[in-house]
Design brief:
With about 850 residues, this protein is of the alpha/beta class. The chain folds into four domains: about 80 residues, no CATH class; about 325 residues, 3-Layer(aba) Sandwich (Rossmann fold), CATH 3.40.50.2000; about 260 residues, Rossmann fold, CATH 3.40.50; about 110 residues, Immunoglobulin-like (Sandwich). It has 30 helices and 27 strands. Strands 1, 2, 5, 6, 7, 8, 9, 10, 13 and 14 form a ten-stranded mixed sheet that branches. It has a seven-stranded antiparallel sheet with strand order 21-22-25-24-23-26-27, with no helix packed on it. It has a six-stranded parallel sheet with strand order 17-16-15-18-19-20, sandwiched between helices. α11 crosses α12 and α25 packs across α26. The termini are far apart.
C-alpha cells in the first residue's frame, strides 16, 4: 500500500462571479429550494445526474471552460444572485415561528437532536429508511421554524448499502466509499485551525472521533467520524457502516453516538438544555449527561440523574420487541466497567437502568434505558402510542395501561422536500406562496378546491409520464448489468404505459409489510392488471436488511412473479430505492399502496408524501392512516382487525384489496367525462390533499415537540438546576425518603354511602382511613377510580377523582374523603390508589410506587 507523505485538499476553482455557488453548495437548504436545485441542474444537467445530485462533487468535476461560460452568462448570474439572496434572507430573517412566539421567554434555549441516521438528500447516504428520512425532515422544519436546534449523528464511510439483484432476483449489497471531501460536509476546527476531536475510553484504549458539520438551513448537523490514524483498525471501522457488524460493533457505534456526541457538543461550546433521542440508539447520552454533571458540580448520581432526566426526550419508533437494541451483560461489563465507578453506582444498579427486572441473564435494553432516563416519551402515531403503552406497561406494573407515561406525536413530512416542481408551481398559482411558509395552515390548503380540474390532472399526468420514463430507464440499466439479451433490453420500451392506472409500493421489505399480499391470488391479480380497456400497472421498490433472509426472499419471489408472462409488462421491481427514486414514485403514482399487518406499522410517512402530490392512499388500517382515513380521501383495507391465524388474515385482506381495486379504484379512475377528465378521481385527489397535507407535515410535528416537550422540559430543567442544583437535590432527597418509608403506607379502612338502587345523578361519599407513617399528606396523592363494571368484573370507562385529607389522629393516620357522581345506570364500583406526589416529578407514575385497595 502506497501511503502519502502529506495530504491536502483541492477545491473547485470558481470564477469570482460564481463564488456564491460554494456557499450554496454547502448549505443543504438547496435540497428543498426548487430554484436552487434548478440552478445547479442548469450549470450542467448531465453532470448533476452523474454526481448523484451532489453540487460539491459536481463543482469539483465540471470543466473550467463551462464555469467561465456560466460566469459570462447574465441569465445564469441573475438566477444565482436571486437564489443566493433568498438563502441570505432565509438565514438572517427574524420572522420565524420561534422568534415571534417564544424567543423572548426562552432566550438561551438550545436543543440537541440525536439520531443514528439522517436522510436529508441522496448525495448524503447516511440513512437507511423512514427513521432517517424523518430525522432529516425534523431538522429541515426546525430550521424553517427558527428553532434553536442542532443535530448529532455519525458520518459513515460506507453508509447504508447499495442494492442490486442477481439473476435469480436475490438481493446483493455493495458498499461504495463516501469521499467526505466531495460531500457537503466540512471539518469543524478550533481556534488554532486544528480539527475538533473528542475521545471516549474503550477497554484498554482511547478511541478518538473528529467532528464534521453539514449545514441544514439554519440548523447545524454535527457528525462524528472515527476513521482516524490514531485509532486501531477495528475502531476506525466503527463509523464504517450504518447498522453493520455484530453486537460488539453496534455497542461501539452507539457509545460514540451517545457519549461521543455529548462530548462533541461540549467541545463545540454547546450545552443543550434538551437532548432528544430519536430511537434508543443514542440513549447512552443520558448516562454521559449524568456523569458530566456529577463531575462538574460534585453531585451524587441520584441528584444528577434527576437534573439531567428533566432535559431528555425519547421518541420510540418500534412496535415489536425485535426492533429494540439489546446487549448481553458481558458487553455492558466490557465497555462500562469503568463507567460504573465514575457514576458511583454498583454493577447491578447500572444494569437495572436497562432491564425490566433483576434476572442476571437479561440483556440490557437501549429502549428501557431511554425510558428510565427521559422526562418525556412518545410514540409516532396515536395507534403507536397505544401499542407502546401496552409494550412497556410492565415497567410500571401497578399503572393502568392508559396511564403509562408514553404519549404520541404523529410523524409528518417536510412538504417542500417531497412535492414535485410541477405541483409546487400549481400550488403557488392557486394557493399563493404562504403554503411554503405555513404548511400547517388548514385555510390555505382549502384553496386546493380553486385549482381547475384540468390543470390538476394534466400536472399529475406529466408526473406519471416522467415516472414511467424513469422506471423504464432504470429497468434497462438493471437488465444491462445482469447481462440480459438485446431483445430483453429492447423490450423495456414496452413495459408500463404513461396513461395506465399506476400503483406504487415502495418501503423496507420487512415481512410484516406484506409486499406479496397482492399476489395471494395470482390469477385474480392478472385479470385485474390486464383488462383491455382498464389496465393497471404496479411499481415496487425497497430494500431488505442485509441480515433479513425472509425479507430478501420476498423480493426474490416478487421478481419471479414479475417475470411471468401475464405480469411482465405490468409489474416491475426497481433496484436501489433511495430518496431520488422515492420522489419520482410519490410524485407520479396514482395509488400509494400500504399493506402492513395492523398494529405493526408505527406510523409510516411515504403515504403522506404521496398525498401532498395528489396521489391517493390505499392502506390497511394502521399507523398514521388510522388518523387520516375517512371515506372520500382514499381507501382502507379492513378496520384494523388482528387475526390469530396470520395466513387466514392475509387471505381475508387480500380478497378485500382485490374487491377495492375492482369495484372502487379502477372504475373511478377510468370513468371519464366528455372532456376526458376523471372528475370523481380528481375530487378524491383534492379531498385527500386538503385533509392530509396541512396535518401530516413536520412543521406541525416539530411545533408539537416544542410545545409539548422541549419548552416544558426546559422550564423543569432550569428549575432543578438553579442555585447549584438545589431543586434536583431536594427532589432526590424526597425520593430517597419516600422509597425508605413507603412500606409504612397502607389503607386501614374504606367506607361509603353507596347502596343498590341509587338513581342516576346521585352522589356517593367515599371515606378512607390511611396510615402514612413518616410521610405527610403533601407527599402523597390519594385517588378514587370510579365507573361501570365490565362483564369481566373490572372497572370500565372509569374516571379518577382526587381525595382530600379531612382529619388526622396526630399519629400518622389520616381520613380522606371524596364525592363521586352516578352518571349512568348499571353496575358500578370504585377503587382507591395512593401515589407519591411531588411538584417536580416528571409524571405521577414516575416512581413506580403505588398502593391499591384490594
Amino acid at each position: 500500500m502506497l501511503r502519502p507523505y502529506r495530504t491536502y485538499t483541492v477545491v473547485p476553482s470558481l470564477p469570482p462571479r460564481l463564488s456564491p455557488l460554494h456557499e450554496l453548495a454547502y448549505n443543504l437548504w438547496w435540497t428543498w429550494n426548487l430554484d436552487a436545485v434548478d440552478l445547479f441542474r442548469r450549470l450542467d444537467r448531465d453532470l448533476w445526474e452523474e454526481s448523484g445530485h451532489n453540487p460539491v462533487l459536481m463543482l469539483g468535476l465540471i470543466k473550467q471552460d463551462r464555469l467561465e461560460e456560466a460566469a459570462n452568462d447574465d441569465g445564469f448570474i441573475a438566477q444565482m444572485i436571486r437564489v443566493y439572496q433568498a438563502l441570505n434572507h432565509y438565514m438572517s430573517t427574524s420572522d420565524t415561528w420561534f422568534k415571534k412566539n417564544h424567543a423572548a421567554a426562552l432566550p438561551s434555549l438550545k436543543i440537541a437532536y440525536f439520531s443514528a441516521e439522517f436522510g436529508i438528500t441522496e448525495c448524503m447516504p447516511i440513512y437507511s429508511g423512514g427513521l432517517g428520512i424523518l430525522a432529516g425532515d425534523h431538522l429541515k422544519s426546525a430550521s424553517d421554524l427558527g428553532l434553536p436546534l442542532v443535530g448529532v449523528g455519525l458520518l459513515y464511510q460506507e453508509g447504508f448499502f447499495r442494492q442490486y439483484l442477481n439473476a435469480d432476483g436475490w438481493q446483493q449489497e455493495s458498499y461504495p466509499l463516501n469521499d467526505f471531501h466531495t460531500l457537503p460536509v466540512q471539518l469543524e476546527r478550533g481556534r488554532e485551525g486544528l480539527p475538533i476531536r473528542v475521545e471516549v475510553q474503550f477497554p484498554g484504549r482511547v478511541v478518538a472521533a473528529q467532528v464534521w458539520r453539514t449545514q441544514v438551513g439554519r440548523v447545524p448537523l454535527y457528525l462524528l467520524d472515527t476513521n482516524m490514524d490514531s485509532n486501531r483498525p477495528e475502531d476506525r471501522d466503527i463509523t464504517d457502516r450504518l447498522y453493520g457488524g455484530d453486537l460488539d460493533m453496534r455497542i461501539r457505534q452507539e457509545i460514540i453516538l451517545g457519549i461521543g456526541g455529548v462530548r462533541a457538543l461540549s467541545a463545540l461550546g454547546i450545552e443543550p438544555m434538551v437532548c432528544h433521542m430519536n430511537e434508543g440508539h443514542s440513549a447512552f447520552l443520558a448516562l454521559e449527561r449524568i456523569r458530566k454533571v456529577m463531575r462538574e458540580q460534585s453531585l451524587p448520581f441520584a441528584v444528577a440523574r434527576q437534573a439531567t432526566a428533566a432535559g431528555n426526550i425519547f421518541t420510540t419508533h418500534t412496535s415489536v420487541p425485535a426492533g429494540i437494541d439489546l446487549f448481553p451483560p458481558y458487553l455492558i461489563d466490557r465497555y462500562f466497567g469503568g463507567y460504573y465507578q465514575e457514576l458511583g453506582i454498583s454493577r447491578d444498579e447500572f444494569l437495572l437502568l436497562g432491564r425490566r427486572g433483576n434476572n442476571p441473564d437479561e440483556s440490557f435494553s437501549m429502549a428501557i434505558l431511554a425510558l428510565r432516563l427521559a422526562a418525556g416519551t412518545n410514540g409516532v402515531s396515536k395507534v403507536h402510542g397505544e401499542v407502546a403503552r401496552a409494550m412497556w406497561n410492565d415497567l410500571w406494573p401497578q399503572v393502568p395501561r392508559e396511564e403509562v407515561p408514553i404519549t404520541s406525536i404523529t410523524n409528518g413530512i417536510h412538504t417542500c422536500s417531497w412535492i414535485s416542481v410541477d405541483m409546487a408551481g400549481l400550488l403557488l398559482r392557486y394557493l399563493g406562496p404562504r403554503w411554503l411558509e405555513r404548511p400547517s395552515d388548514q385555510s390555505i390548503w382549502e384553496r386546493v378546491e380553486r385549482i381547475p380540474d384540468e390543470e390538476l390532472w394534466r400536472t399529475h399526468e406529466r408526473r406519471r409520464e416522467r415516472l414511467v420514463a424513469v422506471a423504464r430507464e432504470g429497468l434497462k440499466r438493471q437488465l444491462e448489468r445482469r447481462g440480459a439479451t438485446p431483445k430483453e433490453i429492447s423490450e423495456t420500451t414496452e413495459v408500463l404505459h404513461p396513461d395506465v392506472l399506476t400503483i406504487g409500493f415502495a418501503r423496507r421489505f420487512a415481512t410484516y409489510k406484506r409486499a406479496l399480499l397482492l399476489f395471494t391470488d395470482p390469477q385474480r391479480l392478472a385479470a385485474i392488471l390486464n383488462q383491455r380497456e382498464r389496465p393497471v400497472q404496479i411499481l415496487f421498490a425497497g430494500k431488505a436488511h442485509p441480515n433479513d433472509t425472509p425479507g430478501k426472499d420476498f423480493i426474490r419471489r416478487l421478481v419471479h412473479f414479475a417475470r411471468q408472462e401475464e405480469f411482465r409488462r405490468r409489474i416491475i421491481f426497481l433496484e436501489d430505492y433511495d430518496t431520488s427514486l422515492a420522489r419520482y414514485l410519490v410524485q407520479g403514482c396514482d395509488i400509494w399502496l400500504n399493506t402492513p399487518r395492523p398494529g405493526l406499522e408505527a406510523s409510516g410517512t411515504s403515504g403522506m408524501k404521496a398525498a401532498a402530490n395528489g396521489v391517493i392512499n390505499l392502506s390497511t388500517f394502521d399507523g398514521w392512516w388510522c388518523e387520516s382515513y375517512e371515506p372520500g380521501v382514499g381507501w382502507c383495507i379492513g378496520h384494523g382487525e388482528v387475526y390469530e391465524d396470520e395466513a387466514y388474515g392475509d387471505q381475508v385482506e387480500a380478497q378485500a384489496l382485490y374487491d377495492i381495486l375492482e369495484k372502487d379504484v379502477i372504475p373511478l379512475f377510468y370513468e371519464r367525462g366528455a372532456d376526458g377528465l376523471p372528475r370523481g378521481w380528481i375530487a378524491t385527489m383534492k379531498r385527500s390533499m386538503r385533509k392530509i397535507a396541512p396535518v401530516f407535515n413536520t412543521s406541525r410535528m416539530v411545533q408539537e415537540y416544542a410545545e409539548e416537550f422541549y419548552f416544558p422540559e426546559v422550564s423543569r430543567y432550569q428549575k432543578l438546576s438553579a442555585d447549584q442544583y438545589q431543586g434536583a437535590k431536594g427532589l432526590a432527597e424526597w425520593l430517597g425518603k419516600v422509597r425508605s418509608h413507603w412500606g409504612e403506607v397502607h389503607i386501614l379502612a374504606i367506607d361509603s354511602d353507596a347502596q343498590d338502587g341509587l338513581p342516576v345523578s346521585a352522589m356517593v361519599n367515599v371515606r378512607a382511613q390511611l396510615a402514612l407513617g413518616s410521610l405527610k399528606p403533601e407527599d402523597v396523592s390519594v385517588q378514587v377510580f370510579h365507573g361501570g363494571i365490565s362483564p369481566q368484573g373490572e372497572l370500565d370507562n372509569y374516571e379518577i377523582a382526587p381525595m382530600s385529607p379531612s382529619d388526622t389522629d396526630g399519629e400518622g393516620n389520616y381520613t380522606y374523603t371524596a364525592i363521586i357522581p352516578c352518571n349512568r345506570s348499571g353496575l358500578h364500583g370504585y377503587a382507591l390508589r395512593i401515589l407519591p406526589q411531588h411538584p417536580d416529578l416528571c409524571h405521577a407514575c414516575e416512581t413506580g410506587l403505588a398502593i391499591w385497595s384490594s
